[in-house]
Amino acid sequence: MHAEFEISTDERVTTVDVTERVEDQVPNDADGTATVFVKHTTAGISVNEAEPRLLSDIETALEDIVPETGWEHDELDGNADAHLRSMLLGRDVTVPVVDGRLDLGTWQSILLVECDGPRTRTVTVTCE
Questions:
Q1: 23: confidence class by pLDDT, cuts 50, 70, 90
Q2: Cβ neighbours of residue 43 under 8 Å, at least 6 residues apart?
Q3: Domain map of the chain by residue range?
Q4: What is the mean pLDDT of the chain?
Q5: 119 neighbors 82 (Cβ within 8 angstroms)
Q6: Among residues 35, 37, 39, which one has the least CA distance to residue 26?
Q7: Which fold has domain 2-127?
């Protein structure tokens, strides 16, 4: 099974909980794994807690770890920081699926981390 959905972001760096959108794509009778992949080089996917203060901390940490300016790629299109931040996050996660439900831990959510917004992002979900 393979499906896609789009998420629009409204900030340059922001984190969006996409757990429900992912689970909506999982077939009711699925058992196995779901791979969640963002089809972009300036956004990432992660599993973590979706508590609002933590989401803000994720954004602040990325901005602290990778400064916005001073990169060679900026001469081309001004978003080297976004590319570097997304490399730290990764573009995909794999989550167990049991009886058509994501088998996440109590506090775990699937997060799309936007590093170069606002944009519309495409997320794919593949179940095996």
A1: very high
A2: 86, 91, 112, 113, 114, 115, 116, 119, 121
A3: 2-127
A4: 97
A5: no
A6: 35
A7: Jelly Rolls (2.60.120)
